[in-house]
Amino acid sequence: MSTPPIKLFIFGFSGKMGTAIRTSLPQGFQVIGGLSQKGVHILDTHNPLLSLCSQKKGSFGLHPIHQLTQLLQKNTPDIFLDFSSPVLLDRLLDTALLFQKPLLIATTGYTQKAKAKIKCSAKKIPILLAPNLSWGICILTQIAKQVQNALPNSEIVILEKHHNQKKDRPSGTAKAIKSALKNNNPHTQPHTLSIRGGNTPGTHELYFYDGDETIVLTHTALSRTIYTNGTQKAISYLLSHPPALYTMNDICH
Ligand SMILES: NC(=O)c1ccc[n+]([C@@H]2O[C@H](COP(=O)([O-])OP(=O)(O)OC[C@H]3O[C@@H](n4cnc5c(N)ncnc54)[C@H](OP(=O)(O)O)[C@@H]3O)[C@@H](O)[C@H]2O)c1
Q: 3-state class of 109 per DSSP?
């Protein structure tokens, strides 16, 4: 008998990332629905075109947002994914807590207060807070820490460039790298610069200015595939770990 697919529900169903995930997941994952500003999208399981292999062929019915809980009671996902907006945080946490299911939070732009709420909820369910799901960014951060240890007096600048529709600045990734490189010396605290333009998924450049020499580390996202690949790894990780707040650092070690 074949293993049933892992059922996913996406906050940010019809956005750029929600769409990338729905259209790229391999066999073994099934998007059962999601939330957007238009309402709750729920998979129509009676549609004859439905195929677990092709998320594109699933037909989704649209329902009012207030029916979310009721709809999820009929078909509960194994995990919730969030690629939406910080304004949805309360609804997102309440829903995942109500159904006691793991939560992957990929949305960026959360305040410290919002992060405290996420940390509190992670006492009850496994939560991954991942401002960047790419493996490369995880490796970049680890290498950056090594450079910082080797050049403790260097001045560090993080330059991030993203498409012109990105709402937050600096990017969640730049903030996460900055926090990873935070140190006790007020003269060597990393600082961030942002550029918005065009349609590019994202570039992060780390400059280590040390006297007469400079080291530059660059990560460029060439497509959203790096995030959908990271999403698959993150789902497997969350489904096999107990309640706690995780980061990509836990996964890519
Ligand atoms: N962690 C990572 O690796 C990673 C990678 C890429 C992006 N992101 C982050 O993921 C988030 C989404 O990115 P995106 O590029 O997919 O953005 P997007 O194209 O603007 O999509 C946002 C989605 O959220 C929905 N949404 C926004 N506000 C809502 C509300 N109040 N109620 C219900 N639904 C709402 C939108 O609904 P409509 O479609 O109806 O407008 C849309 O489906 C951003 O925070 C971005 O920084 C993270």
A: coil
- Give residue 25's pLDDT: 87
Q: Which domains does the chain have, with CATH numbers?
A: 6-129+225-251 (3.40.50.720), 135-221 (3.30.360.10)
Q: Going along the chain, which residue ranges are E strands?
A: 6-11, 29-36, 39-43, 60-63, 79-82, 103-105, 126-129, 155-162, 191-196, 202-210, 213-221, 244-246
pTM for this one? 0.90
Q: Which residues line ligand 1 (CB under 6 A)?
A: 12-18, 35-38, 83-85, 87-88, 106-109, 130-133, 227
Work out the average pLDDT over 172-194.
91
Ligand 1 centroid, distance to 193 Cα (angstroms) = 23
- 57 is known as an active-site residue: no
* Contact in structure between 102 and 96 (CB atoms under 8 Å): yes
Between strands 103-105 and 79-82, the pairing is parallel
Please name the residue that has the structure tokens 């959908």: 228
H-state helical runs in 45-171: 68-74, 89-99, 112-121, 135-150
